[in-house]
Design brief:
The protein is mainly β. It is built from one helix and eleven strands; from the N terminus they run H-E-E-E-E-E-E-E-E-E-E-E. It comes from Flavobacterium pygoscelis.
Amino acid sequence: MKKIIILAAVLTFSFTALHAQAVKFGFKAGLNYANQTGSDITVNSKNYKTDAITTYHVGLLVELKLTDGFAIQPELLYSTEGATYKNAIEDFKNELGYLSIPVMAKISLNKAISLDLGPQASFLVSEKNKFDAKNAETFDFGLAGGLSLNITENFFLQGRYVLGLTDASKEAQVKNSVLQVSAGFKF
């Protein structure tokens, strides 16, 4: 995992050196509305339904403007995801903390709004639940899409949906899905 983080940092700084005049650094934070969906959600031979949980994300970003209407925005986020599992007898919260690396292509629709699309790789770093920790997958890959609204030259708002494409558990076919609303600052 450390090698991947170092590789992402080296690539980000390489792009920065090439396009120093069109680079903005920033940070963002916001709320997640996360759930785990899939077929056959079974834990310890019991079937469960899931409900979404409200959590948070926080992190850093680099916006690399390549043309007037196109930019690449790699990010490094700490994001909590998961769900509340319920059946007739019990319920419990499954909260997973990920180090997420989305790489968004930003297509400007006008001076204030951009369409953001791209892949996201996430690495499990913490887990708060009643599951056996050995049952969680440590890598999650997904696709992200959303909109960014530049309020000022430096302050922005974002809405994004991340659809997990890989299973979050070794024992059940469940995938993470999260709706993110963020506020951030670029300088």
